[in-house]
Write a structure and sequence with these properties.
Distance between the termini: 56 Å
Shape: globular
CATH class: Alpha Beta
CATH architecture: 3-Layer(aba) Sandwich
CATH topology: Cytidine Deaminase, domain 2
Structural class: alpha+beta
CATH superfamily: Cytidine Deaminase, domain 2
Strand content: 15-25%
Oligomer: single chain
Radius of gyration: 18 Å
Number of domains: 1
């Protein structure tokens, strides 16, 4: 076996895919944080919202219609790991024009923590560099939500 054949067999192939079965005309349009909260309440796994934290990514097209979602991470009672690289890997795969991030607070308190504010800023800055704006970050509970955009924090 020559060196080129060896290299080809020992280098991983990168595959990028995004499967969308929803016609553009049938995509859910988000007009407000209330619309997004309604959608998120259907996406958080049963019982999770009051049990442990999850981060969900919503990818949007130019018309504020939902391209798709991904559960970025599941954590413990008081936190979950959020890796901006994973968020934007998915957003780029989906060719998103914007994203909305969301996580739940099992405590029922919607007020953002200092860590919530820092990660939002970090993800927002990363999105600006990639020209994928972060449109909002919602902290959700089974009884309500906090929108960073509504509160002027985006």
């Amino acid at each position: 076996m020559n060196e080129l054949e060896y290299l080809k067999g020992n280098v991983a192939e990168i595959e990028i895919s995004y499967k969308n079965n929803v016609k553009a005309s049938e995509r859910y349009r988000v007009r407000s944080s209330k619309d997004m909260y309604g959608l998120l309440m259907t996406l958080f796994n049963d019982g999770v919202i009051d049990h442990h934290e999850q981060m969900i990514l919503i990818c949007m097209d130019k018309a504020n219609k939902v391209l798709g979602y991904n559960i970025i991470s599941s954590g413990g009672v008081s936190g979950t790991v959020v890796d901006p690289k994973i968020i934007f890997q998915i957003a780029l795969k989906m060719n998103a024009s914007g994203i909305i991030i969301s996580h739940n607070h099992p405590s029922g308190v919607t007020t953002p923590s200092d860590a919530d504010i820092r990660i939002t800023r970090k993800i927002k800055d990363s999105g600006a560099m990639l020209e994928i704006p972060v449109l909002d970050h919602l902290i959700v509970t089974s009884e309500g939500y906090y929108s960073f955009a509504d509160e002027g924090m985006m």
